[in-house]
Write a structure and sequence with these properties.
The chain has about 120 residues and is an all-alpha fold. About 75% of the residues lie in helices and about 0% in strands. It has helices spanning about 5-20, 25-65, 70-100.
């Protein structure tokens, strides 16, 4: 493992390690695992989308210049971007499903829906 990836993983998990208390029961363990996965998901989704669009740019550049090697590299990057997104959303879904299966009240809240006034105005 390289030094850069070690420092990145240490910086991501240091707050969880420093402020973490020993889990009291199984619900605490599942809740902690779900919250860790939920905090990592946006980063992984961003990397997957970035990888996909980088591959798309390589593909378009290769198609414009007629370079078959660049086209194949772009296709491979797009494929790996889709695989990364699939794995990320699968992990997130499994964590949510595990949390909902064992504990119906853990992380099941949904944000409130926005209110839009009617076209006739506020009074009608």
């Amino acid at each position: 493992m390289s030094v850069r990836s070690s420092l990145l993983s240490l910086s991501l998990f240091t707050p969880a390690i420093l402020y973490a208390a020993a889990p009291g029961n199984f619900a605490d363990v599942v809740d902690r695992a779900t919250s860790i996965i939920a905090s990592i998901v946006p980063v992984l989704v961003g990397l997957g989308v970035l990888l996909f669009f980088w591959g798309l740019a390589r593909f378009i550049y290769g198609a414009g210049s007629g370079n078959e090697k660049t086209i194949s590299e772009g296709k491979a990057l797009m494929l790996w971007g889709i695989v990364a997104l699939f794995v990320t959303f699968s992990l997130w879904g499994l964590a949510r499903m595990m949390s909902n299966f064992f504990f119906h009240s853990v992380n099941t809240s949904t944000p409130p829906q926005p209110y839009f006034p009617s076209p006739g105005g506020f009074g009608s």
